[in-house]
Amino acid sequence: MFTHRLKEELKSLKEQNMYRNLSILRENIIDFSSNDYLGLKDCKKTKKQLCQKIDTLQLGSGASLLVSGYTKIQNQLEKHLSNLKETQKCIVVGSGYLANIGMLQALIKKEDTVLSDELNHASIIDGLKLTKAEKLIYKHKNTKDLETKLKTRKNKGQIFIVTDGVFSMEGDIAPLDDIYKISKKYDAVLIIDDAHATGILGEGKGTLFHFGLKPEENIIQMGTLSKAVGSYGAFICASEVVIEYLINKMRTAIFTTALSPIQNYISLQNLQIMQAEPHRRLEVLQKAKYLAEGLKKARFKVTFNGTPIIPLIVNEEKKAIKIRDFLLQNNIFLQAIRPPTVPKGTSRLRITISYKHSYEDIEKLLSLLTKFQT
Ligand SMILES: Cc1ncc(COP(=O)(O)O)c(C=O)c1O
Asked: 195 alpha carbon to ligand 1 midpoint, in Å?
């Protein structure tokens, strides 16, 4: 009965072109789907340093942060991140998904109201499901709608505004200058998910800095170490009291084993390289712009938003899969992104550029996409 139900659902996913499976990428394939924007996930310098240091590092943390899993290297990493994000404190947790669901559940109470962009990441959506607060979803990047919705709130508690800094599937940037003004006007707490902005925007410091803003008591910056930083784990940077509260209340920090010291060491080394080598960030943006301009010349409807993410929206799931498979035959990997990751009817090839891509790689992608189109 149970297995039958699962099989039926899987069959239906196949019929709707929504079926997914795992695949290991061939060696030497050109990957245009990774979030490794700065080319740090395979960083030779960090590998070398890790080899030298390995004897002194524990393989696992052995326990949760509050038991005995909090290590010197995690403390160093948190201090480094607070410095980067110019906040009083930081907490590092297992992943961006865990950071968002745990933080939102811990901070937002039943009597509060939360305003969330309709295209915010799934981890924010899931985190909000864990709170009993009033939830108001505003149109993508639409600050007029944000304020209109805010005025309709029924709850009398704290107001929260939650937004991705860079939207993962669109590659566009939240209008944080205007959102910040609204947050000040209504004394709202502003939570920014900088998963895709850290290492890229605001000289690598994130979306707040991109807009010339500075951290304040009511601003929380979350981010992941798994994208531009090329490692794994995530962080929340905020005021001392917010972090103190999260240490005491955040279930995804309390009831889970702390990250391995090895992983934290990798994050720390890669962060240092990220800051010492700004040309990685500048080059990746130049390359993304080059690709977007090439696609536009070939009559594709794309926009360059000043980030390494360029979505090529083809609408139909079937078409997205066809393009993916065609590219795969030609040694390029570009995943077809379909619902529920993106809204229905907006299936796409989400192109991400890495510092590691050569202009020849980009030319190859351009010429294959053009060939497919004609
Ligand atoms: C905007 C955004 N937030 C959070 C996450 C989750 O981060 P992680 O991959 O570290 O769990 C992602 C990653 O997919 C993301 O795109």
From this structure: 6
Please tell me if the CB atom of residue 61 comes closer than 6 angstroms to any atom of ligand 1.
no
* Residue 224 Cα to ligand 1 middle (Å): 7
- Is 350 a pocket residue for ligand 1 (Cβ < 6 Å)? no
Least confident of 136-140, 174-178, 217-221, 339-343: 339-343
Q: Which of 33, 36, 123 to mutate to test the pocket of ligand 1 (most atoms within 8 A of CB)?
A: 123
Which CATH code is given to the segment(s) 25-41+278-373? 3.90.1150.10
pLDDT band at 170; cut points 50, 70, 90: very high
In angstroms, the first-to-last Cα distance of the chain is 48
Atom 7 (ligand 1) nearest CA: 96
- Where are the domains positioned within the chain? 25-41+278-373, 57-276
CATH number at 57-276: 3.40.640.10
Task: Determine if the pTM surpasses 0.85.
Answer: yes
* Contact (CB, 8 A) for 114 and 160: yes
Q: Name 8's Cβ contacts closer than 8 Å, sequence gap at least 6.
A: none
Which residue has the CA at smallest separation from atom 8 of ligand 1? 96
CB distance 234 to ligand 1 below 6 Å: yes
260 lines ligand 1 (CB under 6 A): no
The string of pLDDT tens digits covering residues 72-91 is 999 999 999 999 999 999 99
* Strands 113-117 vs 159-164: parallel, antiparallel or unpaired: parallel
CA distance 224 to 193: 9
25-41+278-373 and 57-276 share one CATH topology?
Answer: no
